[in-house]
Amino acid sequence: MVNKLSSWVGMLFLAAAMSPLAQAVDPAAAPMAPPNAVPVGTTFLVRLEDKLDTAELHAGQHFKVKLDEDLISANGNMIPRGKKIKGHISSVEHGLRARLLLSFDEIETKHGWIALIATVIGVPSEHGVKAPDSEGEIERKGPSAKQDAAAGAAAGGVGGAGAGAVGSLIANRDLRLQKGTTLEVRLDRALQIPSH
What we know:
- The structure is a single chain.
- The protein is α+β, with helices and mostly antiparallel strands.
- The chain has a domain at 30-142 and 175-192: Type IV secretion system, VirB10/TraB/TrbI (Lipocalin).
- The protein has helices at 2-25, 145-156, 160-171; strands at residues 37-38, 43-48, 52-53, 62-67, 71-72, 78-79, 84-93, 99-109, 112-115, 118-122, 129-130, 137-140, 176-177, 182-187, 191-192.
- The strands form 4 sheets. Strands 2, 4, 7, 8, 9, 10, 11, 12 and 14 form a 9-stranded antiparallel β-sheet that branches. The chain has a two-stranded antiparallel sheet with strand order 1-15.
- α2 (145-156) packs antiparallel against α3.
- The termini are far apart.
């Protein structure tokens, strides 16, 4: 009986000790953003100002996008639609499973450039792109089972038609995002908008 009681007391003590730790790690318990900030987790749309093609890109290369909607803080400070955002390619993979990881560096405001920490969470207008993973990596959809079967049949066939089908599948293996493509982005850090 004493052992059971001491076990319960020990578990209660452990739970009480862990509670402040859990609150410190829990994002829901995180402090609210300042009134001049757009809060963490805010999603917004941007539009590519450059064509991004995994066949031509390399890590470290810079790209530009424009804000496609207003970003407004709680106190009414705003970064209006059309402001520029600078970023760079964090990683790129070529081939059948072409992938692209974009990092955002800074965003233009009325009072100069400020740091922007955000992740791509979607490419709404592109059907040939998988939904980005948790790190924001954009990946070209691989060939379907039907395309794989067609490639296999073409490879087994004789003559120019078979070679042409295989060549077409191989030629289309890179990921291409045209200028004007819309990206959905999520803030990973509150964006404090300067007022002067």
